[in-house]
# Entry
Amino acid sequence: MTNDSTLPANEDAWRGAVYQAWLARFGAPPAAAAELRVRARARLAGLDAYFGELQGRRVLNLMGSNGMKAVATALLGAQVTVVDFAQGNADYAQALAEAAGVELRYIVSDVLALDSAERARRYDLVFAELGILHYFSDLAPFAALVTEVLERGARFVLRDFHPVSTKLLSFRGSTAKVRKVKVTGDYFEAALRAEPVSFAKYLPPDAAATATVLWRRWTLGEVVTAFAAAGLRIERLVEEPNRSSEVFDRGIPKTFVLVAVKA
# Structure
């Protein structure tokens, strides 16, 4: 999250029915954990290719949401800490970790409001994924935090939605026959916009209607520049197609992975 004027609206949304949304999406934590134990690497959706060795490594998952990626990482041998704003996320993640038989250290906090003791900890890997950056109206403080908590030589891995898809294009139609893609946006727009919170699609319509947040979408250049300016050495920028379908939106970048190292 960000600690500026966008926060009150985002606080309200994330204090809502987030735990119930994850129950609807993944099922009860014991059932979700049973599946996760046999598909831990698959749940990382290729992120582990950028992580390197995980056994015994100290890993920080910033804005780690419901803990799916964090628990998967712990199942692969890492010592994982999550920082996330929402208590409902923490409740689901802790229950998931317990059912999966792994330890998970979960800090409920705005990532930019971590105390000095937490900021003094050092990690062998820091990662964040999908729907992270748009919660910040200024990327510099977040990039500075990432740099601060990394050990020297350690790696930061970010996967997020590609701005070509989120800022420039609109998509309609749920089958290949009627799928339409149009250029309707302004790639360089910097305004804050009210959007449904990510978990709203798993809630009943009456609950989902009130779950909105303020987002600021960033260009790819702004993202890379922010982390480079914070002192990280950019190792790799990978632009990814639609990972969930080989039919929809072929040839359009849907996500990206930024890999950076603290020199």
Observations:
- The chain is about 35% helix and 25% strand.
